[in-house]
Amino acid sequence: MPPSARGALTALIRRHGAWLMAAGAGLGILLPDLAAAANPALLPLSCLTMFLALLRVEPTAFIAVLRRPGLGIVVIFWILLACPVLVWCLGRLVLPADDVFLRAMTLIAATPGMMSAAAYGVLLGTDVALLTLVGLPTNILAPVILPAVALLLGGGAAIDPAVTALRLAVMIGASFGGAFLVTALIGRPRIRRAAPAIDTAITLLVAAVGLAVMHGVGPALVAAPGFMTLAILSTLALNLALQATGFAVFGFAIFGFAILGPVPVQARLSAALVSGNRNMILLLAAISGQGDRPLELIMAAGQLPLYLSPLIVAPLYRRARSRAGR
Protein backbone atom coordinates (compact mmCIF):
# COMPACT_ATOMS: atom_id res chain seq x y z
CA MET A 1 0.00 0.00 0.00
CA PRO A 2 1.43 3.44 -0.90
CA PRO A 3 2.44 5.58 2.09
CA SER A 4 -0.18 8.21 1.28
CA ALA A 5 -2.97 5.63 1.19
CA ARG A 6 -1.71 4.01 4.38
CA GLY A 7 -1.62 7.41 6.09
CA ALA A 8 -5.17 8.16 4.97
CA LEU A 9 -6.37 4.78 6.23
CA THR A 10 -4.77 5.16 9.67
CA ALA A 11 -6.17 8.70 9.95
CA LEU A 12 -9.64 7.36 9.09
CA ILE A 13 -9.36 4.65 11.76
CA ARG A 14 -8.29 7.16 14.41
CA ARG A 15 -11.01 9.63 13.43
CA HIS A 16 -13.71 7.00 13.78
CA GLY A 17 -12.17 5.14 16.71
CA ALA A 18 -15.24 5.39 18.93
CA TRP A 19 -17.40 3.83 16.21
CA LEU A 20 -14.91 1.00 15.70
CA MET A 21 -14.87 0.27 19.45
CA ALA A 22 -18.66 0.06 19.48
CA ALA A 23 -18.60 -2.07 16.32
CA GLY A 24 -16.25 -4.56 17.97
CA ALA A 25 -18.64 -5.01 20.89
CA GLY A 26 -21.64 -5.19 18.57
CA LEU A 27 -19.96 -7.88 16.50
CA GLY A 28 -19.34 -9.88 19.67
CA ILE A 29 -23.06 -9.76 20.47
CA LEU A 30 -24.24 -10.60 16.95
CA LEU A 31 -21.68 -13.39 16.46
CA PRO A 32 -21.44 -15.18 19.82
CA ASP A 33 -19.32 -18.00 18.38
CA LEU A 34 -16.73 -15.48 17.20
CA ALA A 35 -16.76 -13.81 20.63
CA ALA A 36 -16.28 -17.22 22.28
CA ALA A 37 -13.34 -17.97 19.97
CA ALA A 38 -11.72 -14.59 20.72
CA ASN A 39 -12.32 -14.71 24.48
CA PRO A 40 -9.21 -16.82 25.36
CA ALA A 41 -7.08 -14.06 23.80
CA LEU A 42 -8.56 -11.43 26.13
CA LEU A 43 -5.58 -11.24 28.52
CA PRO A 44 -2.85 -10.93 25.84
CA LEU A 45 -4.97 -8.44 23.89
CA SER A 46 -5.44 -6.37 27.06
CA CYS A 47 -1.71 -6.52 27.84
CA LEU A 48 -0.80 -5.41 24.31
CA THR A 49 -3.32 -2.55 24.45
CA MET A 50 -1.93 -1.34 27.77
CA PHE A 51 1.66 -1.70 26.49
CA LEU A 52 0.97 0.52 23.46
CA ALA A 53 -0.87 3.07 25.61
CA LEU A 54 2.11 3.24 27.97
CA LEU A 55 4.40 3.92 25.02
CA ARG A 56 2.36 7.10 24.49
CA VAL A 57 2.95 8.30 28.06
CA GLU A 58 5.66 10.93 28.06
CA PRO A 59 8.13 10.28 30.93
CA THR A 60 8.14 13.97 31.82
CA ALA A 61 4.34 13.95 32.16
CA PHE A 62 4.39 10.84 34.36
CA ILE A 63 7.12 12.32 36.59
CA ALA A 64 5.10 15.53 36.88
CA VAL A 65 2.08 13.53 38.10
CA LEU A 66 4.26 11.67 40.62
CA ARG A 67 5.60 14.98 41.95
CA ARG A 68 2.02 16.14 42.52
CA PRO A 69 0.46 13.03 44.06
CA GLY A 70 -2.41 14.85 45.75
CA LEU A 71 -4.59 14.80 42.66
CA GLY A 72 -4.06 11.07 42.09
CA ILE A 73 -4.79 10.27 45.74
CA VAL A 74 -8.05 12.24 45.69
CA VAL A 75 -9.13 10.57 42.43
CA ILE A 76 -8.47 7.16 44.02
CA PHE A 77 -10.50 8.14 47.09
CA TRP A 78 -13.30 9.39 44.84
CA ILE A 79 -13.42 6.19 42.75
CA LEU A 80 -13.23 3.57 45.49
CA LEU A 81 -15.06 5.23 48.38
CA ALA A 82 -17.05 8.31 47.44
CA CYS A 83 -18.69 6.90 44.29
CA PRO A 84 -20.22 3.76 45.87
CA VAL A 85 -21.50 5.78 48.84
CA LEU A 86 -23.02 8.36 46.49
CA VAL A 87 -24.67 5.70 44.28
CA TRP A 88 -26.04 3.80 47.28
CA CYS A 89 -27.49 6.90 48.94
CA LEU A 90 -29.13 8.19 45.76
CA GLY A 91 -30.36 4.73 44.80
CA ARG A 92 -32.02 4.21 48.18
CA LEU A 93 -34.24 7.19 47.42
CA VAL A 94 -36.08 5.13 44.80
CA LEU A 95 -35.14 1.47 45.34
CA PRO A 96 -35.36 -0.93 48.30
CA ALA A 97 -32.12 -2.02 49.92
CA ASP A 98 -32.34 -5.57 48.56
CA ASP A 99 -33.07 -4.56 44.96
CA VAL A 100 -30.69 -6.32 42.56
CA PHE A 101 -30.17 -3.19 40.47
CA LEU A 102 -29.19 -1.15 43.52
CA ARG A 103 -26.71 -3.85 44.58
CA ALA A 104 -25.31 -4.05 41.04
CA MET A 105 -24.93 -0.28 40.62
CA THR A 106 -23.21 0.04 44.00
CA LEU A 107 -20.79 -2.80 43.22
CA ILE A 108 -19.98 -1.24 39.85
CA ALA A 109 -19.33 2.10 41.54
CA ALA A 110 -16.92 0.39 43.97
CA THR A 111 -15.00 -1.39 41.19
CA PRO A 112 -11.61 0.06 40.13
CA GLY A 113 -11.16 1.75 36.80
CA MET A 114 -10.41 -0.52 33.88
CA MET A 115 -6.76 -1.40 33.34
CA SER A 116 -6.99 -0.22 29.72
CA ALA A 117 -8.11 3.29 30.78
CA ALA A 118 -4.83 4.69 29.45
CA ALA A 119 -5.73 3.40 25.98
CA TYR A 120 -9.10 5.16 26.19
CA GLY A 121 -7.25 8.25 27.38
CA VAL A 122 -5.07 8.24 24.26
CA LEU A 123 -8.15 8.00 22.03
CA LEU A 124 -10.19 10.61 23.93
CA GLY A 125 -7.38 13.07 24.63
CA THR A 126 -7.19 12.95 28.43
CA ASP A 127 -4.25 12.91 30.88
CA VAL A 128 -2.82 9.43 30.22
CA ALA A 129 -0.14 9.77 32.91
CA LEU A 130 -2.77 10.42 35.58
CA LEU A 131 -4.87 7.48 34.36
CA THR A 132 -1.82 5.22 34.64
CA LEU A 133 -1.04 6.43 38.15
CA VAL A 134 -4.63 5.95 39.34
CA GLY A 135 -5.21 2.61 37.61
CA LEU A 136 -2.50 0.65 39.41
CA PRO A 137 -3.40 1.15 43.11
CA THR A 138 -7.16 1.00 42.54
CA ASN A 139 -6.89 -2.40 40.87
CA ILE A 140 -4.43 -3.67 43.49
CA LEU A 141 -6.94 -2.73 46.21
CA ALA A 142 -9.83 -4.47 44.40
CA PRO A 143 -9.51 -7.83 46.26
CA VAL A 144 -10.06 -5.91 49.51
CA ILE A 145 -12.63 -3.32 48.46
CA LEU A 146 -15.06 -5.45 46.42
CA PRO A 147 -15.66 -8.23 49.01
CA ALA A 148 -16.13 -5.58 51.71
CA VAL A 149 -18.75 -3.72 49.66
CA ALA A 150 -20.49 -6.99 48.74
CA LEU A 151 -20.61 -8.01 52.40
CA LEU A 152 -22.20 -4.69 53.35
CA LEU A 153 -24.78 -5.24 50.60
CA GLY A 154 -25.59 -8.68 51.93
CA GLY A 155 -23.94 -10.71 49.17
CA GLY A 156 -20.66 -12.49 48.70
CA ALA A 157 -18.12 -11.63 46.05
CA ALA A 158 -15.61 -14.43 46.21
CA ILE A 159 -12.44 -12.91 44.85
CA ASP A 160 -9.34 -15.04 45.16
CA PRO A 161 -6.63 -12.47 46.10
CA ALA A 162 -3.82 -14.69 44.80
CA VAL A 163 -5.42 -15.21 41.39
CA THR A 164 -6.30 -11.53 41.09
CA ALA A 165 -2.79 -10.48 42.11
CA LEU A 166 -1.27 -12.87 39.56
CA ARG A 167 -3.48 -11.53 36.76
CA LEU A 168 -2.59 -7.94 37.64
CA ALA A 169 1.11 -8.80 37.93
CA VAL A 170 1.10 -10.30 34.43
CA MET A 171 -0.68 -7.28 32.93
CA ILE A 172 1.36 -4.67 34.76
CA GLY A 173 4.70 -6.46 34.42
CA ALA A 174 4.31 -7.24 30.73
CA SER A 175 2.97 -3.79 29.84
CA PHE A 176 5.38 -1.65 31.86
CA GLY A 177 8.36 -3.92 31.22
CA GLY A 178 7.68 -4.02 27.48
CA ALA A 179 7.19 -0.24 27.26
CA PHE A 180 10.40 0.41 29.19
CA LEU A 181 12.40 -2.04 27.04
CA VAL A 182 11.10 -0.69 23.72
CA THR A 183 11.72 2.90 24.79
CA ALA A 184 15.28 2.03 25.83
CA LEU A 185 15.96 0.20 22.56
CA ILE A 186 14.53 2.62 20.00
CA GLY A 187 14.38 5.91 21.90
CA ARG A 188 11.61 8.38 22.68
CA PRO A 189 11.99 10.43 19.43
CA ARG A 190 11.16 7.40 17.24
CA ILE A 191 8.17 6.58 19.42
CA ARG A 192 6.89 10.15 19.04
CA ARG A 193 7.20 9.89 15.26
CA ALA A 194 5.29 6.59 15.35
CA ALA A 195 2.45 8.07 17.44
CA PRO A 196 -0.18 7.95 14.64
CA ALA A 197 0.56 4.28 13.94
CA ILE A 198 0.50 3.46 17.67
CA ASP A 199 -2.84 5.23 18.13
CA THR A 200 -4.27 3.33 15.17
CA ALA A 201 -3.14 0.02 16.65
CA ILE A 202 -4.66 0.96 20.02
CA THR A 203 -8.00 1.68 18.33
CA LEU A 204 -8.03 -1.70 16.58
CA LEU A 205 -6.96 -3.54 19.74
CA VAL A 206 -9.68 -1.92 21.87
CA ALA A 207 -12.21 -3.02 19.23
CA ALA A 208 -10.79 -6.56 19.40
CA VAL A 209 -11.03 -6.56 23.20
CA GLY A 210 -14.65 -5.40 22.84
CA LEU A 211 -15.35 -8.38 20.61
CA ALA A 212 -13.77 -10.85 23.04
CA VAL A 213 -15.34 -9.40 26.18
CA MET A 214 -18.87 -9.74 24.78
CA HIS A 215 -18.62 -13.52 25.15
CA GLY A 216 -21.93 -14.68 26.64
CA VAL A 217 -23.73 -11.35 26.30
CA GLY A 218 -25.45 -12.21 23.01
CA PRO A 219 -27.06 -15.46 24.23
CA ALA A 220 -28.13 -13.74 27.47
CA LEU A 221 -29.77 -10.96 25.46
CA VAL A 222 -31.71 -13.55 23.45
CA ALA A 223 -32.72 -15.53 26.55
CA ALA A 224 -33.86 -12.51 28.60
CA PRO A 225 -34.28 -9.55 26.23
CA GLY A 226 -36.36 -7.36 28.53
CA PHE A 227 -34.14 -7.75 31.57
CA MET A 228 -30.91 -7.41 29.56
CA THR A 229 -32.15 -4.28 27.79
CA LEU A 230 -33.01 -2.71 31.13
CA ALA A 231 -29.60 -3.76 32.48
CA ILE A 232 -27.76 -2.24 29.50
CA LEU A 233 -29.68 1.04 29.74
CA SER A 234 -29.20 1.22 33.53
CA THR A 235 -25.46 0.56 33.41
CA LEU A 236 -25.02 3.00 30.50
CA ALA A 237 -26.88 5.67 32.48
CA LEU A 238 -24.67 4.97 35.51
CA ASN A 239 -21.53 5.18 33.37
CA LEU A 240 -22.49 8.55 31.90
CA ALA A 241 -23.76 9.95 35.21
CA LEU A 242 -20.52 9.05 36.99
CA GLN A 243 -18.47 10.59 34.18
CA ALA A 244 -20.44 13.83 34.38
CA THR A 245 -20.23 13.88 38.17
CA GLY A 246 -16.49 13.17 38.17
CA PHE A 247 -15.84 16.00 35.73
CA ALA A 248 -17.96 18.41 37.77
CA VAL A 249 -16.53 17.41 41.15
CA PHE A 250 -12.95 18.05 40.10
CA GLY A 251 -13.84 21.37 38.58
CA PHE A 252 -16.31 23.01 40.92
CA ALA A 253 -16.42 21.24 44.26
CA ILE A 254 -14.05 21.23 47.21
CA PHE A 255 -11.88 18.51 45.62
CA GLY A 256 -11.10 20.80 42.70
CA PHE A 257 -10.06 23.98 44.52
CA ALA A 258 -9.78 23.81 48.29
CA ILE A 259 -7.60 20.70 48.29
CA LEU A 260 -5.83 20.65 44.93
CA GLY A 261 -6.06 24.07 43.41
CA PRO A 262 -7.46 24.48 39.88
CA VAL A 263 -7.40 21.15 38.05
CA PRO A 264 -6.43 21.17 34.33
CA VAL A 265 -9.21 20.12 31.98
CA GLN A 266 -7.33 17.03 30.75
CA ALA A 267 -6.97 15.85 34.35
CA ARG A 268 -10.68 16.50 34.97
CA LEU A 269 -11.50 14.46 31.87
CA SER A 270 -9.32 11.64 33.19
CA ALA A 271 -11.20 11.74 36.49
CA ALA A 272 -14.46 11.59 34.52
CA LEU A 273 -13.23 8.70 32.39
CA VAL A 274 -12.26 6.46 35.30
CA SER A 275 -15.36 7.47 37.26
CA GLY A 276 -17.66 5.94 34.66
CA ASN A 277 -15.56 3.17 33.09
CA ARG A 278 -14.79 0.40 35.56
CA ASN A 279 -13.01 -2.96 35.40
CA MET A 280 -16.15 -4.96 34.62
CA ILE A 281 -14.15 -8.07 33.70
CA LEU A 282 -12.76 -8.21 37.24
CA LEU A 283 -16.19 -7.59 38.77
CA LEU A 284 -17.91 -10.21 36.62
CA ALA A 285 -15.26 -12.75 37.58
CA ALA A 286 -15.77 -11.83 41.23
CA ILE A 287 -19.52 -12.49 41.34
CA SER A 288 -19.74 -15.40 38.87
CA GLY A 289 -20.81 -18.73 40.32
CA GLN A 290 -22.38 -17.20 43.44
CA GLY A 291 -25.92 -18.31 42.50
CA ASP A 292 -27.19 -14.77 41.87
CA ARG A 293 -28.08 -15.02 38.18
CA PRO A 294 -29.82 -11.60 37.89
CA LEU A 295 -26.74 -9.90 39.34
CA GLU A 296 -24.49 -11.79 36.92
CA LEU A 297 -26.65 -10.74 33.96
CA ILE A 298 -26.44 -7.07 34.98
CA MET A 299 -22.65 -7.30 35.25
CA ALA A 300 -22.46 -8.96 31.83
CA ALA A 301 -24.62 -6.20 30.37
CA GLY A 302 -22.45 -3.62 32.14
CA GLN A 303 -19.55 -4.40 29.83
CA LEU A 304 -21.36 -2.99 26.78
CA PRO A 305 -21.42 0.66 27.99
CA LEU A 306 -17.61 0.61 28.08
CA TYR A 307 -17.75 0.48 24.28
CA LEU A 308 -20.88 2.58 23.72
CA SER A 309 -20.08 5.52 26.00
CA PRO A 310 -17.10 6.80 23.94
CA LEU A 311 -19.51 7.45 21.06
CA ILE A 312 -21.48 9.74 23.35
CA VAL A 313 -18.71 11.44 25.30
CA ALA A 314 -16.05 11.89 22.58
CA PRO A 315 -17.59 15.11 21.18
CA LEU A 316 -18.16 16.39 24.72
CA TYR A 317 -14.52 15.73 25.63
CA ARG A 318 -13.39 17.56 22.47
CA ARG A 319 -15.63 20.51 23.33
CA ALA A 320 -14.24 20.66 26.89
CA ARG A 321 -10.64 20.68 25.60
CA SER A 322 -11.53 23.30 22.98
CA ARG A 323 -13.16 25.60 25.52
CA ALA A 324 -10.19 25.25 27.87
CA GLY A 325 -7.81 26.17 25.03
CA ARG A 326 -9.49 29.49 24.32
UniProtKB/TrEMBL annotation:
Keywords: Membrane, Transmembrane, Transmembrane helix
Family annotation (InterPro entries): Na+/solute_symporter_sf
Protein name: Bile acid:sodium symporter
Keyword set includes Transmembrane: yes
Transmembrane segments: 12-31, 37-57, 69-94, 100-123, 130-153, 165-187, 194-214, 220-240, 247-265, 297-317
